[in-house]
Design goal:
The chain contains 9 helices and 11 strands. By secondary structure, it is α/β, with parallel strands linked by helices. It has one domain: Spore Coat Polysaccharide Biosynthesis Protein SpsA, Chain A, CATH 3.90.550. The radius of gyration is 18 Å and the shape is globular. Pfam families: Glycos_transf_2 (PF00535). This is Glycosyltransferase family 2 protein.
Length: about 260
């Protein structure tokens, strides 16, 4: 028997996408969930849209911030308020397939798995396919995850009952990488990947994540500020990161017709 899945969703001015994201949770075949939405001081129609869903479904919990604090702060606040055995993440512009939670919770129980993730597909701002699949590694060790973030945040689930709640560190970017690395570390065994397409990642124009070169400095700071490595060691791991990103990571990205 599985348990409640607490779904963490930060929101900031996402009126164009938030309804579809919430619907993809409401339509899950697995029904034992709570959706914890934290609005980061939006000024568009996001709040009204969320309130409408909340009135219809008691499993939706909604918290609003008066001042913008950033997505990591919102995820941490939601994590602190979570009641679930499992914790999962869905950003306000991404989508899940209806069977996602059922497949992953069943898989985790059957395989005594603390950290699980899956394939996902890329879509554009209008929800059209971009013919790109990111494939989940079947087994992901701490050492491998340290070289690159192989877990798509929108697909990851960890067992908070066995690992405890994991809060994102106070670093400007790459917080999700840190969370999944910590989850694998606490687990003491590899994260397990499911080679099924269970989610849709929306690629938005002008997003920081769309321009990987902008993240070079953040990758260095991940090693220096988060893992507390020395400058030489951080630079060394940054070089390893590049090797992993350009030589190994492409093996797990598939172009579709």
């Amino acid at each position: 028997m599985s348990g409640i899945v607490s779904i963490i969703t930060p929101v900031f001015n996402s009126s164009q996408f938030i309804a579809k994201a919430i619907e993809s949770v409401v339509n899950q075949t697995y029904k034992d969930w709570e959706l914890i939405i934290v609005d980061d001081a939006s000024w568009d129609a996001s709040i009204e849209i969320i309130e409408e869903f909340k009135q219809k479904d008691s499993r939706i919990r909604f918290f609003r911030l008066d001042e913008n604090q950033g997505a990591a702060f919102c995820r941490n606040l939601a994590t602190e308020k979570a009641n679930g055995k499992y914790i999962a993440f869905l950003d306000s512009d991404d989508l899940w397939k209806p069977e996602k939670l059922q497949i992953q919770t069943d898989f985790m129980e059957q395989n005594n798995c603390d950290v699980c993730f899956s394939n996902y597909l890329h879509i554009d701002e209008n929800g059209n396919p971009l013919h790109k699949r990111v494939i989940a590694k079947s087994s992901l060790s701490y050492k491998k995850q340290r070289l690159n973030n192989y877990i798509g945040n929108l697909t990851g689930i960890y067992n908070a009952e066995s690992l405890g709640k994991i809060l994102a560190p106070k670093i400007r970017k790459r917080q999700d990488w840190a969370v999944w690395l910590e989850a694998i570390h606490r687990s003491g065994k590899p994260a397990l990947g499911i080679q099924q397409d269970l989610a849709f990642y929306r690629v938005r124009k002008g997003s920081v994540s769309a321009n990987k070169w902008k993240l070079i400095n953040y990758n260095f700071l991940f090693y220096r500020d988060y893992l507390k490595y020395s400058y030489p060691k951080s630079f060394y791991f940054l070089l390893l990161f590049f090797w992993e990103y350009f030589m190994q990571r492409p093996k797990y990205i598939e172009k579709l017709k």
